[in-house]
Task: structure prediction
Amino acid sequence: MVTQPVPSPDLPEPPEAADLDVVSAEHGDDLPPDRPEGGDLTLGEHLIEIRQRLTVAVLTLVLTTVVTLIFASTILDFLLEPGREALPEFRPIYTELLGFIGAYIKISLMLGLAGAMPVIVYQIYAFIHPGLTRQEQKWVMPIVGMATIAFACGGAFAFFIGWPPALSFLLNFGQDIADPQVRINNYIDMLTRFVIWTGIVFELPLFLMGLGAIGLVTSKRLLGMWRWAIIGAFLLAALITPSIDPVTQTFVAVPTLGLYVLGVVLVRLVENRTVIPVIESDLEEDEASA
Result:
């Protein structure tokens, strides 16, 4: 005859479901820091949210563009001031019926987009926010803010420091042979292209810091590439500057080298916290082969 084991009276009873609910309510429903917040939305809810955020972004862009249209004449006059300083009788022309209106609208759209960019960035961030971990949420807005400031500094540097000497060279070169007749569309296109690309170049430190944060580069490796950095800075300056004179290109190349050094410093700060570990032996082999 087989006897059933008698449970010991000293063993605790298993907790009830109600007790578990009480413990959960006491400690809260906080997620661990490495998991995203918020619940899952259906496809339809995602589409509705995208439509709402696109509507807000587009309406903001329309509003800022209309505001800049009101002041477009004053803004154009301000943008033409470096030409008047380089050549007192400077006065742009237009050869198409829509030439001046095209430049007028282009300036309004670009400045309207710049004015609406904070709202657009916020709408993008608010949409992806539930899918980010808490660690990522801490870094997104500071990085966006630093990138915005860097781009604005690059644009200001291009317009106030790089553009005047380049324009002076272009307007005065060969003036004893031919008179410059500059189309306003051509003037605005060259200026905006120069400003935008210089702003992008000023993002170089953040770009290098990002590569260092994921372990693709180290400060030691970047310092070992200083010769290539000098060559790359002057090549980049030759590509983005409207003028071909070496003085203007040096005005852009030297700050680019300074940005590279700043990027090395930022990489030095984050390289010990890499997400992807860097294998030093591989880096040493690459440096030896280089």
Summary: The chain has a mean pLDDT of 80. The first helix runs from residue 17 to 27.
